[in-house]
Records
---
Amino acid sequence: MLHRWRDLQPLAYLVAYPSLMAYQWFNGFHAVFFGIMLVLSVGLSVVQHHHTHLRIWKSKFMNRLTDWVLSIVQGVPSFVFFPSHIGNHHKHTHGPEDETRTYRFGGHHNHLLGYLLHPFQALTVLVPSLLAYIPRRAKKRDHWPWIELLSIVVVSVALALIDVRAWLLFVALPQAHGLHWLLASNYLQHAGARPGTGPEASDDGTYDASRTFTGLVNLVWLNIGYHNAHHLEPRTHWADMPEVHRKHVANVPPWLVERSLLAYFFRTLMFQSKRRKRTFKQS
């Protein structure tokens, strides 16, 4: 029923994450297991993203079930990726109409404060947009967004009533961690890059609008680092992104290709004053 056998990896994440959560709920905090949960919370945000672009299953029922389970486990409804990510970000990649373009908030920058503030700034834009999307779907007799939202609320409230401290530590905190990286990754992938105009842009604009990370982050988080390749071919399966990257990398400015996400983070965001990075100014 799977389209690709490589999707066993995201499904393993989907099983492992709540299993570790349940184990600690009943047996107490375990530092190693909790650390793994934090890694998986980001991994499942990536799974939600990939599943939106290219469905895991051949069965419509199984795809909806996966959406529903991901929504509850992550605390983020899966439907949000359709209006905000596919419907806007991929249409206007880092361009003037991209709702979460990094230079929308305080100018064209690439620094630690911008990174820390971006998730909160993005929410001020995304939440109203998503709230407007729900009634539009309801008019088309699609009530799935409500089902996802209500499921998240019911499960969260029920767990909090059972044990609020356990819920905060083992459920809400990892969910908030995953949400932070879901939103902050946009800053890491686009801050300092050229403001693009989406698929209709010239080759130069398209290649200059995203940053790529080629290191170990891709092994753990399902090739999410190949962001430029993903924007160029968003319907390509995540397992094929390294090949897409190799096909296009000659056209990508070298300063937008990084090996280590961690090294980039510390070099550019933490110690930017000691090393100037090229950035495009907003036109």
---
Amino acid sequence: MLKEIDFIGLIHKSTKRDYLSRVNESPKAQVAEIAKRWDYDYWDGDRTTGYGGMNYDGRWKKVAQAMADHYQLKAGDKILDVGCGKGFLLHDFSLVVPGIEVYGLDISGYAIENAKEEVRGNIQQGHAKQLPFEDNSFDLVLSINTLHNLYCYELFDALQEIERVSKKDKYVCVESYRNEQEKVNLLYWQLTCECFFTPEEWAFWFHKTGYKGDYGFIYFE
């Protein structure tokens, strides 16, 4: 049964955002095109084209701990992070649950090349719409801040793929909005979104694709 759970709020809300500066300081279409290359500029370049330098600082450890506690993860369990980036969350899972098996997939070759060394060998390049894993392979499949970067037809396949490769628990976190102000803020801030919906519309997608896992939303308040 689907359940809304907020694992990401503390990290998301810790960043202060100037939405008007974001949309006015540089040509939005141009920087979005650069960001969607998923290379240096997106991960480690200027803040206008992405993260402005994504370096490991341990902030994801509290997320890993909360998820490990909630899903009762233990040594020997296998987890998959779809859209894992540089693998920081995977690394922190290995710290909070010694003996857990972590695997990741990301579309960015640059992110994988610069992933946390301890988990880099377990990350492969690929697309969420076609996961290169057998049915029922993982105890937990998660995808955080990734699925809203897909087109609708890719999202459909990705949610079904997450359901397919999981033998137990699933969790996805996606961007959403509840009012016009949050929608405008999202449009001003985002660089890579292709599909973003209200919570009710996301519920439609979960039902339509047969996704039965948990979910969370990020709002730009």
---
Amino acid sequence: MMNGIIVVFALGLLSLLTAVVVVVWREIRARDMQHWGGDYLFPAEPSGRVGTPVATDEPVHVFIAICDHYEPEVGKPCKDVSVRRVDRWVEEYPRLFGEFRDENGRPPQHTFFFPQDEYAPEYLDRLAELCEAGYGDVDVHLHHDGDTAEGLREKLELFRETLYHRHGLLRRDPVTGEIVYGFIHGNWALCNSRLDGRWCGVDQELTVLQETGCYADFTMPSAPSDTQTATMNSIYYARDLPGERKSHDRGVRAAVGQSVPADQLLMVQGPLLFDWSNRKLGIMPRIENGDIHAGRPATWQRLQLWMKAGVHVPGKPNWKFVKLHTHGCKDGNIDTLLGPEMQAFHADLARHAAADSRFRYHYVSAWEMAQLVHQAETDAAAPTVVTSRQLPVTV
């Protein structure tokens, strides 16, 4: 009798464990975590582990860049609706955030990665006004499908020239003199990385980006998506690998004292980690990927996770790079980004900085973040925010 009870209990427990494993595996597959979960739990480099310790006797500099996949025509509304979306950003942003100041005395910065495929001069003329007033910057976003290297090159070169010469945006590299831009790939499909081959088509995309003046890519993280790289929470360099797609899956990490590879593109990633305080079905942690959207605003609590991700240049753990992303023209998102929740986030930053002299936060554009990466590589004693349209500010 007792043996029978034990057998029934064991079979029941086995069935329960099997059901749990099945549910967990389905969740893993649904979020495409099989592409990066192993590297997250068992990073190849100790410096890539979430929660890398910092020196406790030094200030912690936190660089915050919001990189917006800025699409006024999302949802394909009439032109008037798209124009009103842009107007709302230009009119409300200074009023809502002009009173906030970071360590450098600068207001919150917003980088508008504008899609080449939605170009209309009236959008960029208005955004240029906001950038000129000192509230942000414009860089390049691109959606394409079934493209070729030649077609991609033509799109990027024409858009680069238009932004610079027609709208007074972007900038010239101070050393080479070429017009440079930051990049985010639409639909996350950088380097033809989708498994189904959609929304790109160009295996050698990194080379085309480099050759047309891209100073850094800011596409990642893309989880939950099959385009997510195995490399995460990192700042690194990648180059095209002959005959391969998704060449940026791995690369050479930036590091103090390491020379910048001349033939590789800088990849600046945002945070990607599990949020164990927010679990699905009470079991599976939700993914924290630095996305600011309706129902998931920026908060002080989320900032703790973003900093825990530990995106930094090895050798400079006290310089934390927090690259966030959003789709700032989507209905709902625009109310979150231009509303009291975002104001509360900036107020919390100021309050905590006033209470803790070691906490130094800096609002930066994507361009400024890339320049800070290079400063970290040279082991600069203190960060100098090379602002987009002003003289450098040493902090």
